[in-house]
Design brief:
- By secondary structure, the chain is an all-alpha fold.
- It has 21 helices and no strands.
- It has helices at 19-51, 56-84, 86-105, 110-136, 141-169, 175-180, 183-188, 190-195, 200-205, 209-219, 225-237, 244-247, 253-268, 271-285, 290-318, 320-343, 350-368, 370-380, 384-415, 418-439, 448-456.
- α13 (253-268) packs parallel to α19.
- The chain starts with 18 loop residues before the first helix and ends in a 30-residue tail after the last helix.
């Protein structure tokens, strides 16, 4: 029996010191794999289309069936993370990545490829719910925003790697290697996952309080683990159920509107139009050859990586709203520039490079604002029992909008023209800016259990009571939660 004082339990020997950082690192590796697997088809499709003699419809299905699977995965991801644990869900994701990526690389025909990519999409859908939860519930509040935003950085790193790998393998048309390389890191990430525990909040959710205290002490040695776990237990005791129906009841209906709207606007504003169809966009601008297909998108994603890293550096200093609103605002401006550029007719010379710069800034602005904050808000907006369900609903809305963009962007470009298409995206981005300005809370520095007070108070942070009259005794008022940081 340990002789350590109750207020400062020693971490289990199976857990490394300051294990919260290892939680964040493991989640980031999963993010890299997710980004790679999402983007790898952009280059591989050029070559496998010839090998399998695909029609235009079949090409579209190869690209979009991953999104169909992701929607299903996001719908079940929250329930899976609650029932089996955040860590178990992550293990399922890592193993599924390794198996389905390897199978896609050896697919003998397009039917097998479609089936495997659907299953890979299910794994991706689970991961985009489970990974941010795993990180957010295992890191101290002072670095939680940066830790969860690091997942978006890791995703961008994976997409950047995709373009450079595709470019390197394009000479020989090695599409099977393009699709299959990520099986290796997916298998390797299982090792730290087997070593790490589940999150403190999941242990409390399952009534394993002693284990929760032990893990809390390891993930945040500077905090009082008993006090933190007591706060989690108190929050859980006040909540009932974790179903989607619970999200529609007061006081969290407002939070549900916020997360669903943010998830939908995140994708409907067109970021994956650039990811999926950058060759078509750059062709409209006058670019041709391998620079169009591989190198220019690589530069775009490198700029996005810089933007995402910048968001990590400032998100816990300046706050969530500053980062989110400035990112969306920049998207509005760049979409307006693209509308003007494409309205000029056939592009050449300086106009071509203005268009390229606008695409680069648009993508960087997305990753700075929407891309980084969606993971943070998905993991922060709800109390523990509703958190995974809320994340599933938010990311399902995100994926439905993603599917709309993937399916209809090419036909809009062909029928309405590039100028009208980007003008429409600009209007949607302006709507997104107004929506976020009205609904997005500032959660910087707040404990996860404290954030529920914002929604209970009608979308406002509780403020401290006015000072009582001079000479008032201790009964003159009671303490309240501090006001929102400025």
């Amino acid at each position: 029996m340990s002789t350590a004082p109750l207020s400062a339990p020693r971490p289990s020997p199976s857990m490394p010191p300051r294990a919260g950082r290892l939680f964040a690192l493991t989640g980031a590796v999963v993010g890299v794999i997710y980004g790679y697997d999402t983007g790898s088809i952009s280059g591989a499709l050029v070559f496998l289309s010839k090998d399998f003699d695909l029609t235009e419809t079949e090409k579209g299905l190869v690209n979009s069936i991953l999104v169909f699977g992701s929607i299903l995965g996001a719908l079940v991801g929250g329930k899976l993370a609650d029932a089996l644990g955040r860590r178990a869900a992550m293990l399922i994701v890592a193993c599924s990545y390794a198996v389905f990526v390897a199978l896609s690389a050896v697919a003998p025909n397009v039917e097998v490829l479609d089936a495997v990519r659907f299953l890979l999409g299910v794994a991706i859908g689970i991961s985009i719910v489970a990974a941010p939860l795993y990180v957010a519930e295992s890191t101290p509040a002072r670095i939680r925003g940066a830790s969860v935003a690091a997942y978006q950085v890791a995703t961008v790193v994976g997409i950047v790697l995709t373009y450079f790998v595709n470019w390197g393998l394009s000479g020989g048309g090695h599409w099977r290697w393009m699709l299959g390389l990520s099986a290796i890191p997916a298998a390797l990430v299982v090792i730290p996952l087997l070593r790490l525990p589940d999150t403190p909040r999941w242990y409390v959710l399952k009534g394993r309080t002693e284990r929760a205290v032990e893990v809390m002490a390891a993930t945040d040695p500077d905090a009082d683990p008993h006090a933190e776990v007591a706060a989690v237990r108190a929050a859980l005791a006040e909540e009932s159920g974790g179903s989607v129906r619970s999200l529609l009841r007061k006081p969290y209906a407002r939070a549900a509107v916020f997360v669903v709207g943010l998830g939908f606007f995140c994708q409907i504003t067109g970021i994956n139009a650039v990811t999926y169809y950058s060759p078509q966009i750059f062709e409209e601008m006058g670019f041709t050859g391998n620079g169009q297909n591989f190198l220019l998108p690589s530069f775009v994603e490198l700029a996005s990586l810089v933007a995402a890293v910048l968001a990590i550096l400032i998100i816990d200093r300046l706050g969530r709203r500053v980062v989110l609103l400035s990112g969306i605002g920049t998207m509005v401006v760049t979409l307006a520039v693209l509308t003007v550029v494409f309205s000029a007719g056939k592009l050449h010379g300086a106009t071509t490079w203005v268009g390229f710069a606008a695409i680069l800034l648009f993508t960087a602005a997305f990753n700075f604002g929407f891309g980084s904050l969606i993971w943070v808000y998905a993991s922060e907006a709800f109390p523990a029992q509703l958190r995974s369900t809320g994340a599933s609903v938010m990311l399902t809305a995100d994926l439905v909008a993603n599917l709309v963009i993937a399916q209809f962007f090419p036909s809009l470009m062909a029928k309405a023209g590039a100028a009208a298409t980007f003008a429409g995206l600009g209007v949607l981005a302006l709507c997104a800016l107004a929506f976020a300005a009205v609904t997005a809370p500032e959660t910087k520095g707040r404990q996860l259990e404290e954030i529920q007070d914002y929604w209970r108070n009608g979308g406002r942070w509780p403020t401290a009571p006015e000072p009582g009259p001079v000479g008032a005794g201790p009964l003159g008022g009671s303490a309240a939660s501090p006001a929102s940081p400025s």
